[in-house]
Request: fold
Amino acid sequence: MGKNFIVGQSGGPTAVINASLAGVVSSALDICSDGAKIYGMRHGIQGFADGDIVELGPRLSDPAASELLKHTPAAALGSCRRRLPDPQKQPDVFEALFARLRQLDIGYFFYIGGNDSMDTIQKLSDYAQTVDSVIRFIGIPKTIDNDLALTDHTPGYGSAARYIACVMKELIADSLVYEEKRVTLVEIMGRNAGWLAGAAALSAGTDCPGPDLLYLPETPFDIDDFVARVEALQTKRKSVVVALSEGIKLEDGRYVCELSASDEEADVFGHRQLSGAAATLCSILKQRLGAKCRAIELSTMQRCAAHISSQTDVDEAFAAGKAGVEAAVAGKTGCMIVLTRDPDVPYRFGCSAADIHGIANAEKTVPLEWIDTEHATVTPQFIEYALPLIGGKLPDHFVL
Amino acid sequence: MGKNFIVGQSGGPTAVINASLAGVVSSALDICSDGAKIYGMRHGIQGFADGDIVELGPRLSDPAASELLKHTPAAALGSCRRRLPDPQKQPDVFEALFARLRQLDIGYFFYIGGNDSMDTIQKLSDYAQTVDSVIRFIGIPKTIDNDLALTDHTPGYGSAARYIACVMKELIADSLVYEEKRVTLVEIMGRNAGWLAGAAALSAGTDCPGPDLLYLPETPFDIDDFVARVEALQTKRKSVVVALSEGIKLEDGRYVCELSASDEEADVFGHRQLSGAAATLCSILKQRLGAKCRAIELSTMQRCAAHISSQTDVDEAFAAGKAGVEAAVAGKTGCMIVLTRDPDVPYRFGCSAADIHGIANAEKTVPLEWIDTEHATVTPQFIEYALPLIGGKLPDHFVL
Reply:
């Protein structure tokens, strides 16, 4: 009988992290017809350490169940944010984890997650070498932030980008109905990388003008310049729509969202209120221009909107899970599956395995040459990169 | 040649207000084959007063264009919030409006909107009688708030309710992934009526527990009781999800969202920040329970999410527009189209015309017997009422 499989999910949920889980289990089921077991760890490495294990094979051998899992948001196994310690400093943690791996007769370990989760794969696979373990450790990429190195993009990004583009298009249509001056500020996730905020530009087309201004965290945000741009736009049109990353920062490094978080600003219950970047800019525009403003945060919706997931993203997340199993069975370890892009059009992707040491704890931001600071938008290269990932056209709108 | 038609849109946008516009135009096109024109007023009665008129017939005679319009959010003609004055006090306003109606040879006037818009229909039709005008004035209901009198429900509600139920289900799935105590507060539109907040309960099913607590504005909100309930729930589960209306009020009538809007609470730019009800309750929970909380506002998304509109709602909005034209041509005026519900199951709706005087400026709230204050939720009667309106099942989720 072959060795057993185990898979976990970690970090923030996405619309397609479960599609990768389905891919791992589906591929493992194909391979382990010899009776090997497929375990899931609940709440990632934390649950594994605590012995919170579930057998997945019987639950997911029905293709209908697997298909449903592919379209279920959040993380079916639960997630965690635990980082493993340095194995040299706390070897006992790793000894305990490997004892449990041996106890379950694990041969293949899969962890679906982002930067921090890849750190877990790196530490486990590095430690395995020091103790001559043959267990294979494979990372499956997952993050709406699209900030993982070496992979063309990450599963989770396409669906979040589709949600953002679609909702931005609807919000812009909404913003255009009144004959009054108004600024709409839409805040999008992405603390250090502007991939998600940039997706707001995908709303533009013959039936939507797209956002008037678009700010990514990769370039310094200048408040005076921003106010001047809004003022200039307001002389031309009633409605001005601004899309911005939650992580936009001033030249001096301060986050815009922190500007309103002074200690004096406590509410009547004595608790400090943290506003977002959009709410802060709303205040500034009201004060400087007397402008009517509304701040909208796409908030948690953008990471769990499975109802409008990108089919391309679902397919890729599933394929990444399958490729992880294939790589492990082929003998690879200390790797993360990366998505590659065929240089030709139409868009086609592939999967391969890359050394985890180039990925864990690295962060890929939007290339500066893809950001048009002159016009406060992204360049056509950004659009060309992101558009195939959102899985087809957005719903069309009628324009009178 | 027959008299001409004119149609306008007013008040807040919805996902299906354009479906009603398509219904009016489609029905008028069928009738006015004798060469009568179909005009649209841009930005409602405000644009009409200013002469901002567009001819709709040529643009919408193509069925594909009409179909696209049915699924386009916001308001294709633009909207306004203008209330007409008292005709006795400012007859000149009405003289000018009727002069323009005569100039365009209008026989049929349609206004798609909510309470305030029905006030416009009431004033125009009442005034018409005083000047022996035979122009027919018909209101077509529209509001996500579902607060219009005499109609079983309003076009716009079903789609917003579907969005809320679907997103609530996704947010609950998201909230369950971590093994840490957290309270998620989701703020839903509806200042005085809890129809939209109640729709959060439609998320519940075999694959979703639904919100743990649900607060509507119809019953007084007790902060101490709320904190005690959250504390009690936290002893049973890690994640507590609360859905609430933006308009929840204390026993003394103060809005919860106003509790944090003291003058002292200005941000660093000197501008007062208005928090929502959810953000205010977040602060209270942090202070009293030390709870980790997040506040999420469904904001403008819930009124323009055409990408997940209820097909039932689209069909009904279109039918209401058609019924308006049929009523006008049959000689009715001073009416609003109401949706009626067949008492039998399965759900079937019909349209009829009701006297505008029972509708304009009235507000229909959720019956108190449909609110379970003991368990902070809505009763099965509410679910039975609202469920058929959201146009079919929500996306299923896999649960491990």
